[in-house]
Design a protein that fits this description.
Elements: H1 15-18, H2 35-43, H3 45-52, E1 64-69, H4 76-95, E2 102-108, H5 114-120, H6 131-136, E3 144-149, E4 162-168, H7 179-182, H8 201-225, E5 226-238, H9 249-255, H10 257-267, H11 273-277, H12 288-298, E6 301-312, H13 323-364, H14 366-372, E7 375-384
The protein binds S-adenosylmethionine (SAM).
Length: 386
């Protein structure tokens, strides 16, 4: 007998046409569930500034171009672009060079909720006769802006036009699921699981290869687009273990209560086991070595810094002793990043059921969860190799 979810028609779409963080301003939206990323980003600002200090400044009539790759729809991207431009302006002031005008491009996949993002943007400052006036104005932005839709695994900008690339918490998203992991006939078919965590070496290797292929494409595109003297700052989820089947914090997020909730739907007959098995979270948290291998073999960029940075918990709660708040936070956090994929796979109603189960399972383990779940990030500061 066909189960409810088997009747949901999911058009076969490439991941990049479909994927986004949960848009809007609702309870499980990315805008309302990205305070952890905001905290982690804040703790790394000194590294961002160190990277900016390596960028060459020039007196030019052309705009100074800053790009955030994987901007999503919350205020984090706006905050970091603001920090970047203010820091570069300070450097221009100290250098005595004529200050250029600034452009900032917010880029993400086409399904991203750019409308919600642009509603958060402060108005343009007084970009009139004198640049200093607009810089001084609080609550105003000192840059022109536009959205650029498209995958950062391909070209997004004309050659040699970008001074600073920044990307936070995005590069662990694969461009697609590795084919061997989704092919039912393959020995690497991820049967019974919805994530790599706790799977076998052959499956993990499929994910690793996809991550490294994607990162290579990313670097190749940026090496064409970046201006000489530019700089690039990248942050993505990373792991401390050498073993890729141990994904650390992301493993707890997608491999425990989320996994169990999928199993619940199967046991309750709401979806078939095949339906669960054909769902996979396209995330890979690399080790430093996984990341380094690609940058070095690509050869376009020098590594100024490459380290694993402890971000902390992905859960932000007001009352840590309230297990149900912890449970809700985990479910909302999971839904804000993976909800769009789940909705497309089993439909909105069953997605509600799934995340309801994630919340209640996480509530039963609230205390342990808060103690155990920690995210680490690979942080890379890159410039052109000479
Ligand atoms: C967790 S969000 C990070 C948002 C933001 N940078 C921040 O700090 O809060 C990850 C973003 O990466 C984007 N992303 C994933 N794969 C992408 C790709 N191939 N090209 C462009 N953006 C991508 C997602 O759509 C999502 O908006």
């Amino acid at each position: 007998m066909a189960t409810v979810a088997d009747k949901v028609v999911v058009p076969t779409m490439q991941l990049e046409r479909l994927f986004s963080m949960k848009g809007g301003k609702g309870e499980s939206s990315y805008a309302n569930n990205s305070q952890a990323q905001a905290r982690h980003a804040k703790s790394m600002l000194h590294l961002v500034k160190e990277n900016l200090d390596l960028a060459e400044l020039q007196a030019s009539d052309n705009p100074f171009v800053v790009v955030d790759l994987g901007c999503a729809s919350g205020s984090n991207t706006i905050n970091v672009v603001d920090v970047i431009i203010k820091h570069i302006i300070k450097r221009y002031e100290a250098s005595g060079l004529k200050q250029p005008e600034f452009s900032a491009f917010f880029t993400d996949l086409p399904s991203n909720d750019f409308n919600s993002l642009f509603q958060l943007l402060p108005p343009l400052g007084n970009y009139g006769a004198r640049t200093e006036e607009c810089v001084a104005a609080n609550n105003h932005r000192s840059y022109f802006t536009a959205a650029v839709p498209g995958s950062f695994y391909r070209r997004l900008f004309p050659a040699k036009t970008v001074n600073i690339f920044h990307s936070a918490f995005s590069l662990h998203w694969l461009s697609q699921m590795p084919e061997i992991v989704v092919d039912k006939k393959s020995s690497a078919y991820n049967k019974g699981r919805v994530f790599i965590h706790g799977s076998s070496a052959i499956i993990a290797n499929g994910y690793k290869k996809q991550f490294q292929t994607d990162l290579r494409s990313f670097l190749s595109a940026r090496s064409v687009e970046m201006k000489r003297g530019g700089s690039m700052f990248l942050v993505c989820l990373g792991r401390t273990s050498l073993d890729p089947t141990d994904q650390g914090g992301p493993g707890l997020l997608f491999g425990t209560h989320f996994q169990d909730a999928w199993d619940d739907l199967v046991k309750e007959g709401l979806i078939s086991s095949e339906k669960r098995d054909s769902f996979n979270i396209p995330v890979y948290a690399p080790s430093l070595q996984d990341f380094r291998e690609v940058v070095e073999s690509d050869g376009s960029f020098t590594i100024n810094k490459l380290e694993l940075f402890k971000g902390g918990s992905p859960l932000v709660v007001n009352k840590p002793d309230d297990a149900s708040e912890v449970g809700r936070a985990l479910a909302n956090s999971c839904r804000s990043v993976a909800g769009v994929l789940v909705d497309a796979h089993i439909g909105d109603k069953l997605s509600d059921e799934l995340f309801h189960r994630v919340a209640s399972r996480a509530t039963s383990h609230g205390k342990v969860l808060l103690e155990q779940i920690q995210f680490f990030h690979v942080v890379a500061s890159l410039s052109f190799a000479n």
